[in-house]
Design goal:
Blueprint (H helix, E strand, L loop, with lengths): L1 H9 L5 H12 L9 E5 L41 H8 L16 H4 L2 E3 L9 H6 L5 H19 L1 H10 L1 E5 L2 H8 L5 H4 L2 H21 L4 E5 L8 H5 L10 H24 L4 E5 L2 H9 L23 H5 L21 H14 L6
Parallel strand pairs: 1-2, 1-3, 3-4, 4-5
Helix pairs in contact: 1-2, 2-15, 3-15, 6-7, 10-12
Length: 358
């Protein structure tokens, strides 16, 4: 029966809600061991913080969010929910994680989950400066502010319990390479690719140490996807016949290996920490290389507009060309997965990595 359930989850018949319920059955989740999900990162986990800062890195307009509850764009870079929404639901918290800067929400909403993430940011402060978004250090400042509000809202004792038992998710790094290192002059003249990987890993380590110092114990460090297979990179890979860019995928694998080693190191050095490495690389690559197995038809182009290079405002301008059924596409825009892909990746992470917290 266990094998049958696993097959059901990866089959093409598995749709969003059913995926979650099947994942709950397989992993035996739905407990109260995780009182809140707290998120740091980039557009992969931004639920709309960028809507409230002066930046062009936004998605609070159609066709984004057309498959979200109510059909309204929220600032999530997808047609619907993002991975942390699905993870929050799968661990028994709530189906959507709100953005910290969204005035529609307050500390009563944030007490069980909040995202400080900002689209187009990275580990490197220079990455966040490209499109004037929230750097990682500022996200940590927001978290400190959140702690103060949480203690005032529920009392210090309960707040400390939530802080220590919450699940902390980190998802960033892609922009550091694709929107910074390989896109503009600067870091590439200071560092070789391997040196830049080490530079970023050092920032990740410092951030986790600070987070641990503030009381966090259950932390998921997210890895890079096969970024050479993003539609934008494939579209511009003229020499390679519009296939995945091997060099970018190699960088992702190298950097992920360094992050994995970092988790081993910090688990030995930081008392009480339970740090895990959530790697989306192989599950996403499997979806891209075996799309029919998951019910997808298109992997090299996205749903939005022509599917080759559009994201953000370019998706709005090309709305008339946008696909009618996003569930057939692995990618929503040239950089971000569809809701269906997000659900599959989230279920994989819950069952294979986060299950130890449940």
């Amino acid at each position: 029966m266990q094998g049958q359930r696993n097959n059901l989850i990866s089959s093409s018949s598995c749709v969003h809600v059913f995926c979650i319920f099947l994942a709950l059955l397989v992993a035996g989740t739905g407990s109260e061991k995780v009182p809140a999900v707290i998120v740091f990162g980039d557009s992969s986990v931004d639920a709309g913080n960028n809507n409230f800062i002066p930046t062009v890195a936004r998605s609070n307009f159609a066709p984004y969010g057309r498959d979200f509850k109510g059909g309204k764009p929220t600032g999530r870079f997808s047609n619907g929910r993002i991975p942390t929404d699905f993870i929050s639901e799968a661990v028994g918290v709530k189906p959507y994680i709100p953005a910290y800067l969204d005035p529609k929400y307050n500390i009563s909403d944030f007490a069980t989950g909040v995202t400080f993430a900002s689209a187009a940011t990275g580990y490197d402060n220079a990455t966040s400066e490209v499109l004037s978004v929230i750097p990682l250090w500022k996200q940590l400042d927001f978290y400190k502010d959140y702690q103060t509000k949480l203690k005032a809202h529920v009392g210090e004792s309960k707040a400390n319990q939530t802080i220590s038992e919450a699940l902390y998710m980190m998802s960033l790094g892609t922009n550091d390479f694709l929107e910074n290192y390989y896109a503009i002059p600067g870091r590439s003249s200071e560092y070789t690719p391997r040196q830049y990987e080490n530079f970023l890993a050092g920032i990740a380590e410092s951030f986790i140490r600070k987070l641990h110092g503030l009381g966090a114990r259950k932390i998921s460090l997210g890895g890079l996807p096969p970024m050479g297979c993003l539609p934008l990179e494939r579209t511009t890979n003229f020499v390679g016949g519009n296939e995945c860019v091997p060099s970018y995928n190699a960088i992702a694998l190298e950097f992920n290996n360094k992050l994995k080693k970092l988790t081993v190191k910090l688990n030995k050095e930081l008392p009480g920490i339970r740090l895990v490495f959530s790697n989306p690389y192989f599950i996403l690559l499997q979806i891209i290389t075996k799309p029919a197995h998951y019910g997808f038809q298109s992997t090299s182009v996205a749903c939005c507009a022509t599917g080759m290079f559009e994201m953000g405002y370019a998706c709005r301008r090309g709305d008339m060309f946008t696909c009618s059924d996003a569930s057939k596409f692995v990618f929503w825009d040239s950089f971000h997965p569809t809701e269906k892909t997000n659900a599959i990746v989230a279920n994989y992470v819950v069952k294979n990595v986060l299950a130890e917290f449940l």
